[in-house]
Amino acid sequence: MNMKTNELVKRLLKYVKPYRALLFIAVISSFISVAASLLTPVLIGDAIDFIVGKDNVNFSEVIRYIGYLGITIALATIFQWLLSWSTNKLSFSTVKDMREDLFNHIDKLPLKYIDSHSHGDLITRMGNDIEQISTGLLQGFSQLLNGVFTIVGTLVVMFIVNWILALVVFLITPLSLFVAAFIAKHTHDMFIKQATVQGKLSGLGEEMISNAKVVQAFSYGDDAQKDYEKLNQELYGYGYKAQFYSAMSNPCTRFVNGLVYAAVGITGALLAINTGSITAGRLSTFLMFSNQYTKPFNEITGVITELQTAMASARRVFAVLDEPTESDDSSLSEINECDGTVKLENVSFGYTEDKILLQHINLAVENGQKIAIVGPTGCGKTTLINLLMRYYDVSGGRILVSSHPVTDVKRDSLRKCFGMVLQETWLTGGTIKENIAYGKRDATDEEIIAAAKAANAHGFITKMSDGYDTVISEGGDNLSQGQKQLLCIARIMLTHPPMLILDEATSSIDTRTEIKIQKAFNTMMEGRTSFIVAHRLSTIKEADLILVMNDGNIIEHGTHEELLAKKGFYFNLYNSQFAPV
């Protein structure tokens, strides 16, 4: 998405709008602070004019101006602090809202988007890019406000004091603006490329760390290091150029400022000597004004780096926020009572329009039936489950759950009908108790323990240091794969859903434990519709109906005995388990 800068600014201002009271405080504080700062050189210049020479000093007037000067400096300090406070609060409040919007938006994005984008890059957008926007806003509000008021204020006062010297300053000013604009133009593209490569680098790092065992098992470490070094070198190149261009802004504008100061000094001295139209005190005031006038240009160009980075980061954040979410279902009805029936009518699906995976699937499931889904890898078993849960929408046909088309009911309502245990386990950082109660926050300790016992997890839990209060790391890395799976099974058993989906749920558990878990599953599946995806066909012999899939089609269906008797695809698939390698 190539969003224009003015569009970005408008969208950022929408986040600022709820805190416009803070913006008002910042503007008033900046105005008073700058006004007090502008008054300071005038007071100093007037005081200097009372110091005519040796033994010719009007001390009473000088002391009076020193008093005025103290009050002015105090006012400038107080309102400068108030400016900093308001801009800090404004900036952090704004990005807090933006961060929450981004997180909530990602939570509503279709699974297709999450699956097709680097998780590390998304994390970078939520973390690093948001922080870059915060820094840009923080520096931008305070320094731009002060800068604009200082430039306008000093220019007005200078024309009042001496229009000839003011004209000298005004005529040299465009040179400073030209330098700043030239540098900003060259840094912008570099910062966009830098942010993009930084996201790729984070994605690669997340991938390598989360799959460290696989990387090491296949000795891919050296290749991964090369990939990382390549991206790191790209990041170095873009970062170096971006920082080089932005670093040039300050010395270049300081050089222009030096020209302004020299021009004012020389012109003022000639006026004082030849015409006497300006006093030494006023010339001193004017020299201080010329410094004050040019200083904002230094500050503004000094924050070009942060502003350019912030705009590049804002583009990346808004690119995610502009991704279409799952369709709004707030106006749809809920499945108040799930009767356990499922019907697929001529269902077709493809991850892309030109590649259809499932074709014309028809199926009618009654309450309490155990439906097993088998077939070779890539035949569409898990895809069919994702359609039942409406993680993806069908390309053709329709799916009905409890006689409701799934597109006509709220997703949360639909998904509450199913309890899902996957092959890939997922645990959150927290206690074992919290992980089991993930789907039922108000569960009692007795219910949690009962679910753990039913899942055969109670034994190993009680042997841990703090029992159910044992803290596990994010992802459960301090547990074995089998233990993690048992906790996931206990989590489902606690919720007692009307229907079950078991996607290779016991694949990571040893044979002895699997037998116990199968008994627990059989108890839990009594009276409940169950969909069982399995590679080990011995685990689904008792299923009421076995669906045999291949190339996105149901090619056979029936009971275990019926399918064996047909001596077809299932027969060969089943016997291949016992064939010598």
Tag the structure with descriptive keywords.
single chain; 581 residues; alpha/beta; six-stranded mixed β-sheet; four-stranded antiparallel β-sheet; 11% strand
What does the model show?
With 581 residues, the chain is an alpha/beta fold. The protein has a domain at 96-321: ABC transporter type 1, transmembrane domain (ABC transporter transmembrane region fold, Up-down Bundle). The chain is 63% helix and 11% strand. It has a 6-stranded mixed β-sheet with strand order 8-11-12-5-13-14, sandwiched between helices. Helix 2 runs antiparallel to helix 9 (280-302) and helix 5 (119-161) runs antiparallel to helix 9. The two termini are 52 Å apart. The mean pLDDT is 81.
Tell me which oligomeric state these chains represent: single chain
Helix- and strand-based class? Answer: alpha/beta
Residues in helices, as a percent range? 55-70%
Radius of gyration, taken over Cα atoms and rounded to an integer in Å: 35 Å
CATH homology-level superfamily of one domain: ABC transporter type 1, transmembrane domain
- Tally the helices: what do you get? 19
